[in-house]
Amino acid sequence: xxxxxxxxxxxxxxxxxxxxxxxxxxxxxxxxxxxxxxxxxxxxxxxxxxxxxxxxxxxxxxxxxxxxxxxxxxxxxxxxxxxxxxxxxxxxxxxxxxxxxxxxxxxxxxxxxxxxxxxxxxxxxxxxxxxxxxxxxxxxxxxxxxxxxxxxxxxxxxxxxxxxxxxxxxxxxxxxxxxxxxxxxxxxxxxxxxxxxxxxxxxxxxxxxxxxxxxxxxxxxxxxxxxxxxxxxxxxxxxxxxxxxxxxxxxxxxxxxxxxxxxxxxxxxxxxxxxxxxxxxxxxxxxxxxxxxxxxxx
Length: 298
Ligand code: HMG
Ligand code: MG
Description:
Blueprint: E1 7-10, H1 12-16, H2 26-38, E2 43-44, E3 47-48, H3 61-67, E4 78-79, H4 83-91, E5 96-102, H5 105-112, H6 116-132, E6 136-142, H7 155-168, E7 172-177, H8 184-195, E8 203-207, H9 214-222, E9 228-231, H10 251-260, H11 269-283, H12 290-296
Parallel strand pairs: 1-2, 1-9, 3-4, 4-5, 5-6, 6-7, 7-8, 8-9
Bound molecules: 3-hydroxy-3-methylglutaryl-coenzyme A (HMG) and magnesium ion.
The site of 3-hydroxy-3-methylglutaryl-coenzyme A (HMG) has 27 residues, from helix 4, helix 5 and strand 6.
């Protein structure tokens, strides 16, 4: 059976904007995040404290956070790759961070410049320090349905990394189909495989829509007991270390599908479409979301 309610983690301001070729003004990021909060999103990934040389687009994350209007009940998680990132996040008063590992060695090396084992060793003190300071920590696993460098990835490899991150103290493990190559039955088998190591209620789905499969993949997993979905408004995004990777599944499309299925998300779809427009106008393009385009043309 399908869940009654799904929690959507909006990743557009981070995953969506980290790979844009043009520099996006801090004020535009702030306006986007405020508009997303107005649309009812309660978990909005606001940026990342990674090396600004590796990902220049996220260099202003501290400035973005400083300009957000505090809202009770809202979370603005940020990515941190190491203790240095955690310290920068804590200096901004962040209450939730995310560490990010991969299920493929080559991707781990390209994305964070270390092996999977080294990344887990590096994350251990990050998670411990964060939790001791009262922060919540989310864990990502990338390349769960395929790697841009290695091709197929075994579900068992994903399960091992997911279990390790949970063991470090992450409250939730987000499964990233980084390059969007997954298809519905593969996605379902993956979640079933990971569920042997990580309870279903701790699993989130983070699917990119590169091959147009993301909504179908989500639907294929939703009756297994997963109820957390990562998505990006207007389908923004891509990963700088995964060539050809496009945006996450669009939040508007997910919200439209779930609303049609009678599943609660707390999102005001029309306000969400407006939030998407606030940033796509800046980027000089149409929202990638079909639901957004349909709503705009009514
Ligand atoms: P490294 O070069 O091995 O790091 O990079 P290092 O520790 O040797 O440090 C090198 C320099 O970076 C030093 O500066 C450090 O101070 C600085 P220098 O002395 O040369 O002037 N540095 C930092 N500066 C600011 N903040 C920090 C930080 N750390 C080091 N936190 C590192 C290793 C992990 C830092 C680098 O590889 C990196 O930043 N990678 C991030 C890559 C990234 O952000 N990728 C995108 C996010 S992941 C994603 O999109 C996937 C996801 O969406 C899920 C999915 O779809 O699958 C989550
Ligand atoms: Mg991603």
